[in-house]
Specification:
Elements: H1 2-24, H2 27-30, H3 46-50, H4 56-69, E1 74-79, E2 82-87, H5 90-99, H6 127-137, H7 143-148, H8 150-170, H9 176-193, H10 206-214, H11 220-231, H12 233-239, H13 246-266, H14 273-282, H15 290-299, H16 302-333, H17 335-351, H18 358-362, H19 365-377, E3 383-387, E4 392-393, E5 400-401, E6 406-410, H20 411-415, H21 440-446
Parallel strand pairs: 2-6
Antiparallel strand pairs: 1-2, 3-6, 4-5
Helix pairs in contact: 8-9, 9-16, 11-12, 13-16, 16-19, 17-19
Membrane topology: Peripheral membrane protein
Keywords: Endoplasmic reticulum, Heme, Iron, Membrane, Metal-binding, Microsome, Monooxygenase, Oxidoreductase, Transmembrane, Transmembrane helix
Main location: endoplasmic reticulum
Length: 452
């Protein structure tokens, strides 16, 4: 008797799931928005979940290219069964990021403050919490603060140079990726936390291990969990899905706790991110509102502070190390560019009497072009996420986005769009010269850089 009933229940469940998918997959058709045909059960992201070679950024570029080739101004896709809006027309993108930003104050990323405290960071938060926190943390990244932290950068740069000389003396291949990772983590640990971890001397330090693990998606289960949380954040929150393990929370919370305790006990201060958080908590300067003062002094837990420290570490490590690696790769491939860059560096150093200073670096105009072209060809942030906070009519169309609709802007797609960047696969720093920036189309695309 049991088996027939069990079979009936299974059929009912399977039918219900199938009908739900069919209903969910009809969303863009009802909106009269072109879309990529989805498949059960992963929608359009099967390759993202099942393949280690396919990432969300590449997937979104693929969708962007399809709609662009079709002459569409936008399109739709499905992340599992969650509809995602992909704008293609630059005017629509600029409207979402700039003119009509008040419709899209939420970034649309998953966070679970209760079960996964580190996920509730500046990158994931939205609305007023994001706006308030961002305004308070922005001073940490001003030119004046960066100038103050320049000396620690030189310390790490000297260690990088010593490591290269040491590897060169041994012969063989130098792993630029490992060098970039060790340098980036050393800089972040020293400038943000006041911790001298010297990753060149201690390549297996906890900082390096956590940095590598943060962006390691070799596990099928982790890729699925990340995609699921990204696609259905409300359900993921209900199920208590954790993006980061408890060991992450413990490690970064302990760093923050020990650092704050030491500085408050010894009455010492530093010009770094943790010091800014300490000053916020203590309302140094008296520029907090009563509500903000209450939050930071009574409501701001160590785990909340650790979340902001963690995202600074994680985002800084990944973006800096990958940009560094790709830049070295392109310089090795393009010897003329390498020679011109070397000449500029030598000329600027002569003017500064051989000293590497903040001002000397700022005067390296061509070096800045090389870095910007690296970021153009290999954007470390491959897409920008937004969430529609209230019904919004897409400019120039009759399409109305419903409240709660997720928007995925493909930075990678735009940066490799031939309309804006002729011969996009070519590494050409001249795109960012004064002459290159005069073109109207280029000026339009450059607004995307500030969208993150």
């Amino acid at each position: 008797m049991f088996l027939p009933y069990f079979s009936i229940v299974c059929v009912i469940i399977a039918t219900t799931i199938y009908l739900y998918y069919k209903w969910a997959f009809s969303y863009w058709k009802k909106k009269c928005v072109p879309f990529v045909e989805p498949k059960i059960p992963f929608g359009n992201v099967q390759n993202v979940i099942t393949s280690q070679q396919m990432y969300v950024g590449i997937h979104l570029k693929h969708g962007y290219d399809i709609f662009k080739d079709q002459g569409q101004v936008h399109g739709g896709s499905y992340l599992i069964c969650s509809p995602r809006y992909i704008p293609v027309d630059l005017k629509i993108i600029k409207s979402i990021l700039q003119q009509d930003f008040n419709y899209f104050t939420d970034r649309g990323f998953y966070y679970n403050e209760k079960d996964d405290p580190l996920s509730a960071n500046l990158f994931s938060l939205g609305g007023e919490r994001w706006r308030s926190l961002r305004s308070k943390l922005s001073p940490a990244f001003s030119s004046a603060k960066l100038k103050i932290m320049f000396d620690p950068l030189l310390v790490c740069a000297d260690r990088l140079n010593d490591a290269i000389v040491n590897l060169e003396s041994k012969g063989g291949i130098i792993d630029a990726s490992t060098l970039s990772i060790n340098y980036s983590i050393s800089v972040i640990a020293l400038c943000a936390f006041g911790v001298d971890c010297d990753c060149f001397k201690y390549p297996n330090s906890e900082f390096v291990q956590f940095g590598r693990r943060t962006f390691d998606y070799s596990s099928w289960l982790r890729r699925f969990k990340m995609t699921f949380a990204f696609a259905m954040p409300n359900l993921a929150l209900l199920l208590g899905v954790k993006v980061f393990g408890r060991d992450y929370t413990n490690f970064f919370t302990e760093i923050v706790e020990k650092t704050i305790s030491f500085r408050e006990t010894t009455k010492t201060t530093r010009k770094d991110l943790i010091q800014l958080l300490i000053d916020l908590k203590n309302d140094v300067g008296g520029d907090l509102s009563e509500e903000e003062r209450t939050h930071w002094q009574k409501g701001a837990t160590l785990e909340e502070l650790a979340a902001q420290v963690f995202i600074f570490f994680a985002a800084g490590f990944e973006t800096s190390s990958t940009t560094f690696s790709f830049c070295l790769y392109e310089l090795a491939q393009n010897l003329e560019i390498q020679s011109r860059l070397r000449e500029e560096i030598e000329e600027v150093l002569i003017e500064s009497r051989g000293s590497i200073t903040y001002e000397a670096i700022s005067n390296m105009k061509y070096a800045n072009q090389v870095i910007e072209e690296t970021l153009r060809k290999y954007p470390p942030v491959s897409f920008i996420g937004r969430k529609c906070e209230r019904p919004y009519r897409i400019p120039g169309t009759d399409v109305v986005l419903d409240q709660g609709t997720y928007i995925d802007i493909s930075v990678l797609g735009i940066h490799h769009d031939r309309e804006y960047y002729p011969d996009p696969e070519k590494f050409d720093p001249e795109r960012f010269s004064d002459e290159g920036k005069k073109t109207e189309k280029f000026d339009g695309v450059s607004t995307v850089w500030g969208g993150t």
